[in-house]
């Protein structure tokens, strides 16, 4: 196993940005190089300790889903080997954790789909009886399966700030306000694009949930991100159905859980639960993680990869 990568240091390509997890470099006018580091963010704060293999899990699991879901929506992958676009001495930084993607204009909202009531959705439901304006039946408990999956968009927060759940109508208006220039001449508007993203996100969730169920995993909720090309065609971008963007529950643990509770998960909820025991204001800098928490988190990410792809953990190297 290679050493964790907290931050890439490529010299062969210009750095465009560093996100919570990904470092993005410019390749040419039509392509970007995205490197998934081993950084971990929780409550929208980047923690100081990397999680070994995390970036490789995110990249290779997302690539698995991009291929599997391509019949529903095209993905961002450009089909170019990332090791071929950097210097030989830099290949270790991209091996197994980087992709070359098309340059696309991202939608300014996250397309969240929920099949179960947990996280911020549970909080909204307790306060209003609804999630992002979607009214739900009375009497639901934490972890409850919803009558049908719901689309609950959210704004994209800057690093250190928190995403905000919004209604579909507000998300449509947000897209309309931010994408007018990108959509000029395409015959589409932001509200139409948001509705198209909603339909596609629900289809992606249904397809992925059916596959995951066969592997003993419940996808409680997940976040998709979309971008558009010059013609206004939607593409699936960023990452998809990974432990960073989804809440994965073991099906057997879900059945055995106490009513009204959420089961342990194959994602960073494990770290969030640990952080909730600390006296921390959820602002940067985040606290250091004990070695046992780092190791267990890495195990959870790898187990999700193995279960969902059917590949051994050794395939990550």
- Rounded mean pLDDT is 93
Using only C-alpha atoms, the radius of gyration works out to 19 Å
Counted by DSSP, the helix tally is 8
Weakly predicted, low-confidence segments: none
- Helix fraction? 25-40%
Which series of helices and strands comes N to C?
EEEEEHHEEEHEEEEHHEEEHHH
The biggest sheet, with number of strands, parallel, antiparallel or mixed sense and barrel status, is: 7 strands, antiparallel
Please provide the count of β strands: 15
User: Strand-residue fraction?
Assistant: 15-25%
Report the span from N to C terminus: 7 Å
Spatial shape: globular
Strand-pairing-aware structural class: alpha+beta
Walkthrough of the structure:
With 317 residues, this protein is α+β, with helices and mostly antiparallel strands. It is built from eight helices and 15 strands. Strands 7, 8, 11, 12, 13, 14 and 15 form a seven-stranded antiparallel beta sheet that branches. A hairpin with a 4-residue loop joins strand 2 and strand 3. Helix 1 packs parallel to helix 8 and helix 4 crosses helix 5. It is globular, with a radius of gyration of 19 Å. The model has no long low-confidence stretch (mean pLDDT 93).
């Amino acid at each position: 196993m290679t050493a964790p990568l907290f931050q890439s240091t490529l010299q062969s390509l210009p750095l465009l940005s560093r996100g919570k997890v990904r470092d993005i470099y410019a390749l040419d006018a039509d392509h970007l190089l995205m490197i998934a580091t081993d950084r971990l963010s929780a409550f929208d704060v980047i923690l100081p300790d990397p999680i070994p293999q995390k970036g490789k899990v995110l990249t290779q699991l997302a690539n698995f889903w991009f291929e599997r879901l391509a019949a529903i929506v095209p993905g961002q992958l450009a089909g170019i080997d990332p090791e071929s676009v950097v210097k030989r001495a830099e290949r270790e930084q991209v091996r197994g954790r980087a992709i070359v993607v098309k340059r696309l204009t991202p939608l300014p909202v996250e397309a969240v789909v929920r099949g179960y009531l947990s996280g911020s959705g549970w909080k909204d439901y307790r306060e209003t009886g609804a999630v992002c304006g979607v009214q739900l039946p009375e009497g639901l408990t934490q972890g409850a399966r919803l009558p049908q999956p719901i689309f609950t968009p959210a704004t994209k927060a800057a690093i250190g700030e928190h995403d905000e759940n919004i209604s579909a109508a507000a998300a449509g208006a947000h897209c309309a306000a931010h994408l007018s220039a990108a959509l000029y001449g395409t015959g589409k508007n932001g509200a139409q694009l948001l509705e198209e993203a909603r339909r596609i996100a629900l289809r992606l969730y249904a397809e992925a949930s059916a596959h995951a169920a066969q592997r003993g995993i419940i996808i409680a909720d997940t976040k998709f991100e979309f971008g558009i090309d010059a013609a206004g065609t939607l593409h699936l971008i960023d990452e998809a159905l990974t432990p960073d963007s989804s809440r994965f529950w073991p099906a057997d643990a879900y059945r055995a859980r106490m009513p009204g509770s959420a089961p342990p998960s194959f994602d960073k909820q494990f770290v969030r639960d640990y952080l909730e025991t600390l006296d921390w204001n959820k602002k940067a800098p985040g606290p250091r993680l004990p070695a046992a928490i780092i190791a267990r988190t890495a195990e959870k990410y790898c187990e999700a990869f193995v279960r969902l792809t059917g590949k051994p953990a050794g395939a990550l190297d």
